[in-house]
Structures are given as C-alpha cells and as structure tokens.
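::Encoded backbone::
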Amino acid sequence: MAQDTGTKKGIETWLQVGILLIGVVTVLATVYFSVRSERTKEITVKYLAKRPLLTLERGRPSAALEVRLGGSRIEAPWLLSGRLENSGNQPIEERDIEVSTKLSFSKGKVVRADIIQKNPQATFGQATAVGNLVTIEHKLLNPGDWINFDVLFDGEPDIPLAFARISGISQVKQLVISSEPARTYTAIVQLPTPVVYLLLIVGSLIGIGSTVGGFGVLGSTTLSAFKQTSVESEERKFKGLDPPTVLRQLTAQTRDARVVFAALGEPVKLEWLDDPQAFSGVINARVAMPILQSLNLNAENATALLVQELKDNLKERLATQVYLSLPSGIDRAVREEMKKIDAQSMSAAELFARARELSTKTAGTKPRFDTDNLVGGVVLLAIGLTLVILLGGTWRTLLGV
C-alpha cells in the first residue's frame, strides 16, 4: 500500500513538472514568434497581367500599323507593369542594399524599362535594362513605400526571376495580380498577433498531445485485449472461486430443505458437504426435533436432502463464476462442461478443484476489446490529426516555409 502511494505521488509530481514545462515553453514560444512577426523585413514585386499594345483582327494586314522606338521598329510590342514594395514592417535603408532588385526575363526582348509612379513621391527610384535583365534601384523604403514600373518588350514576355541581396531579406517575394476581382473575407474577431500565436501554439500542443494520446490508448487497449488469462494474475483467474465466499451464497431449493437450512443458523461449511455423518450430527444438534417431525424427516434424511440440493446449487454457482472469469470465445463452452458434471458423484472439494482447472483454459479464446477505450482512442486520434493538419498549414504560411 505504501509503495502504491509513493508511485502515485511520483506520477503526480512528474505531471506537475510536465505541465509547468509546457506552460513555460508556450509563453516563450509566444513571445518569440510575436517578436519575430513584429520585426519583419520583406520586399515584394507585384506584376499586373502582361498585355499586348497592338491588337489586330485575325486576317487583317498590319503593314500600315507599326510601333517604333528611337527609330527602331517593334514587331510585337508587349507591356508588363509591376510594383516593387516594402511589404514588411521594418525600413529598408540604402546601407542594407548590396545588390539592387533585378528581374531576369527568358522570353521576349526587353526594349525599355521606366519608373512611372512612386509613393511617397520623394522616393528615389530608377529602372535600367541591360539585355533581358532589368534593375530596379532604390534607396530608403519605409514600410508601405512602393515604386511602380513598366517594361516594354518586343515579343510576349514571361514572368521574370527576381533576386536581390539586401540585409535581412533572404529572397524577393513575387506576386502576379489577377485581373479577376479578389475575394474578400470578413474576420469575425480581429485578434492581436501575440494572441494569434498563443492560440496556434496551444492548439498545436493539443493536437500533438491528442495524436500521441490516441495512439497510446489504441495501443494499450489492443495489447490488453490480446493478453491471455495465463499471463494475468492468479486473483483474476480464481476470482469468485473462494470456498467461503461461494458457500455463503448457497441456497436450498425445496421447501423442506429451506426450512432445515434456515434452522442451522449459519452458512454451510465445506466439510459438512463432504462428511454426511458430521453434517447429520450438526443438524441433530441445531435443528429442533419438532421441526424435523413436522417435516416427516429425521436427521439422516434431512442431511441427505440438504447435501443433494446444496451440491447441485454449488455446481451451478461454480459454473457461473468460471464463465465470468474467462474471456469470450471459450466461456460458454466451459460453463456447459461444468454444468454436465454429476455433483453427487464428486465431493465439494473436487467440485472446487474442477472449477479452478476449467478457469485456466485459454486455448482458442478471442480477444475482448474495451469498446469505450477504443472509441475514446479513435476520437482523440481524429481530433489530434485534424488539428495537426490544419495548424501545420497555418504554421507553414506564417513562417514562409
């Protein structure tokens, strides 16, 4: 008992330590990701859909219509408009820039690149083109500042590859703005960034814990179901087969036997059933003679009647206890085997021995699963996997993985 109490206290202590550690990790992670999200340096290049500047009906000659730039004819003029924007929440200073943002095109021929608009207007911006490489130069860009540019092509262009070397920025983000109207989503509750990260972290911990717990419950339930009774404790094997316990439950069947049995004043003992002479002496000493005479019985007849009925009742109760002690698959067959025994040809001690022998049978048994545990494990696993999948995608989006 003392050892069990010590084990329980040890488990409670570890649970408290685990909960404390989870709380500390949650707070630290929330602070870290909140600070990280509040200090983001990012540059984004957005492109409008490319479009031809000259559109002719099919089959119409184009010799009379042409586009020239600096004396050179442009056979198939195309225009790509874009915007370079500081999409982070930290300023990009001139000293941060080692290599300005460059756009490399693999299709079409770059004819010219120009800056067409800036916000704020005093922002420095310059576009140059060398071959099919366009460079967008700038100096200070505060959060939200942007520079619009146009690139003229001879031939249909593709979306370029953008690159730069700027302190604190690993790569230039690129977006293609669709001409279709953008979908808008209304937030029911606008939460502060730290709260969002706190909910994400707690939800992720719950998801991971539910997944691990679900697998653990299912595994434990499966292992328990396949445990054979030969591996289980002796107490479970012989549960309900303790002689004093069973003998206290015995009852006589006929009216005469019940009257004599009640007059004994105490439960029957094992030695009484196995020694009729001793049992007859007990009846003679404890049951009043007028009672026996009213039943037209003497001590010997009363003993024979009680032994017969009590041993039959003992056999039935032992069969029931054996049935309850065995797993499904063999329990019914063993119970029927116990009921077929001729109780009058065996002593009460032999009936108990036979019951113990039958209760150890395990061959051909089927596993008995705990349905509640199985359902609980499946529900935990489903909740955990759902949270992991949903929040995993959210984490990837937030962290840019």
The longest strand covers residues 109-119. Confidence is low (pLDDT under 50) at residues 228-236. The chain has three domains: 44-53+69-176, 198-228+375-401, 238-359.
